[in-house]
């Protein structure tokens, strides 16, 4: 028998038991889906990592109380709760020490869940407000669309002024300029002096639902107790970055009053550390997906072996007839192996298609580029082939080894 005849007979046998074959394929589909969907989503996010995780401007490093992957009030933050907050006096001292040694020093405090109101029109109750200084735009990769930026006098005099994101402008001022307009922000009155250019979204979250005010004003209106300040520093160039970084760490230790033998009681992170944090999290997710898919595929492989053994038993007389009219052992072996591989590959292809669809739907929701993970798809097909051959080999060998006389007697 040639390969085409063997394949035709194998497909005919699989088609004769559609429900059983479909249920067997389902196990393979679930295992392949679990890994392909995760790899697709992670691959899509990594492809957009430069834009999605570039939260700072160029040549920036930042000091904070908490690491980048731990936020105040979040899980994993117990270790850092006993650290002193970075208070305004320390941040000012740092800025003084870095004067002439850095291009920008940005002080910033974030507060979420605010709402702005103008003439009865309200924004969503999820605005982010930032208490900061004139360096916020440069240090966080924002640009000014029109109006003016915050200045040193605004901070010194605690002026109630705002630079707002495009989302606030479009919601409250669809037909007029917001410059000079007075709005209510969580019960406090502010005058808009500038509008930032559109920043878009990052991982499904808008970066334009933001209002920037002098840090001193935020402390007056929303309180300064239990707040910690993040300090971002920008060097004048990439060539000057290392020198600025070293000076910055020293200045921060002085501002915090640390002795020479004491370790840093603050975190330092950059765009590179953000990327590293993402890569480490992605690695853990990959391992988890791989373990889950391995268990599912092993279970599916056992299911294939079980179904093929049942098939051998049911078709014992058929095997005897075929052997009696000249079928060789290798023909029987190839037919049953072809059936096992077909079931495994069919489940694998369905799992790949569903996995790519699921992963890209997540990527679409996060507004990152869609991809097709060719490497993982090919690996999935190879693994499915190996499962079909590995778990189908024993049933195929058992079928090929049947004695034709005994097989013809089987009822």
The SSE order reads HHHEHEEEEHEHEHEEEEEHEHEHHHHH
Q: Please, how many helices? A: 14
Instruction: Tell me the number of structural domains.
Output: 2
Compute the gyration radius: what is it?
32 Å
Shape assignment: elongated
Strand content: 15-25%
In the predicted model, the low-confidence regions spanning at least 5 consecutive residues are: none
Q: How many β-strands, per DSSP? A: 14
Q: Largest beta sheet, briefly?
A: 12 strands, mixed
- Structural class computed from helices and strand pairing: alpha+beta
Proportion of residues in helical segments: 40-55%
Mean pLDDT: 82
Structure description:
Strand 10 (201-202) and strand 11 form a beta hairpin. With 411 residues, this protein is an alpha+beta fold. The strands form two sheets. Strands 1, 2, 3, 4, 5, 6, 7, 8, 9, 12, 13 and 14 form a twelve-stranded mixed sheet that branches. Strands 10-11 form a two-stranded antiparallel ribbon. The protein has helices at residues 3-16, 18-47, 49-52, 88-97, 136-139, 152-156, 166-172, 215-222, 241-256, 271-314, 316-324, 329-365, 374-400, 404-409; strands spanning 60-64, 104-114, 116-118, 121-122, 127-132, 144-147, 161-164, 182-185, 188-196, 201-202, 205-206, 210-214, 230-234, 267-269. It is elongated and about 105 Å long. It has two domains: 3-50 and 276-409, no CATH class; 57-269, no CATH class.
């Amino acid at each position: 028998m040639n390969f085409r005849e063997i394949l035709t007979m194998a497909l005919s046998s699989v088609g004769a038991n559609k429900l059983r074959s479909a249920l067997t394929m389902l196990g393979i589909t679930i295992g392949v889906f679990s890994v392909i969907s995760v790899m697709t989503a992670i691959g899509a996010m990594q492809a957009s990592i430069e834009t999605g995780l570039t939260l700072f401007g160029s040549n920036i490093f930042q000091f904070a109380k908490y690491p980048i992957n731990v936020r105040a009030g979040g899980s994993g933050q117990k270790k850092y709760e006993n650290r002193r907050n970075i208070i305004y006096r320390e941040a000012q001292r740092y800025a003084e020490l870095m004067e002439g040694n850095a291009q920008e020093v940005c002080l910033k405090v974030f507060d979420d869940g605010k709402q702005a109101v103008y003439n009865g029109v309200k924004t969503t109750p999820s605005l982010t407000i930032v208490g900061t200084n004139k360096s916020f735009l440069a240090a966080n990769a924002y640009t000014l669309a029109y109006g003016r930026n915050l200045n040193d006098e605004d901070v010194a005099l605690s002026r109630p002024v705002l630079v707002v994101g495009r989302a606030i402008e479009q919601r409250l001022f669809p037909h007029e300029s917001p410059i000079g307009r007075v709005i209510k922000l969580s019960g406090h009155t502010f005058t808009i002096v500038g509008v930032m250019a559109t920043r878009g979204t990052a991982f499904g979250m808008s970066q334009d639902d933001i209002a920037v005010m002098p840090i001193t004003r935020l402390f007056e209106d929303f309180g300064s107790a239990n707040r910690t300040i993040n300090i971002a520093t920008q060097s004048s160039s990439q060539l000057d970055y290392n020198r600025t970084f070293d000076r910055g760490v020293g200045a921060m230790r002085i501002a915090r009053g640390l002795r020479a033998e004491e370790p840093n009681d603050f975190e330092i992170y950059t765009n590179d550390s953000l990327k590293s944090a993402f890569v480490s999290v992605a690695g853990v997710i990959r391992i988890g997906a791989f373990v889950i898919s391995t268990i599912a595929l092993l279970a599916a492989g056992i299911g294939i072996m079980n179904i093929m053994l049942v098939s051998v038993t049911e078709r014992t007389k058929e095997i005897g007839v075929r052997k009696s009219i000249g079928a060789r052992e290798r023909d029987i072996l190839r037919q049953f192996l072809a059936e096992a591989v077909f079931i495994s590959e069919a489940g694998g292809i369905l799992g790949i298609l569903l996995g790519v669809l699921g992963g890209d739907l997540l990527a679409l929701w996060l507004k990152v580029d869609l991809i097709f993970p060719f490497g993982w798809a090919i690996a999935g097909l190879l693994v499915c082939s190996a499962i079909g051959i590995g778990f189908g080999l024993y049933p195929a060998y058992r079928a090929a080894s049947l004695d034709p006389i005994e097989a013809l007697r089987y009822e």
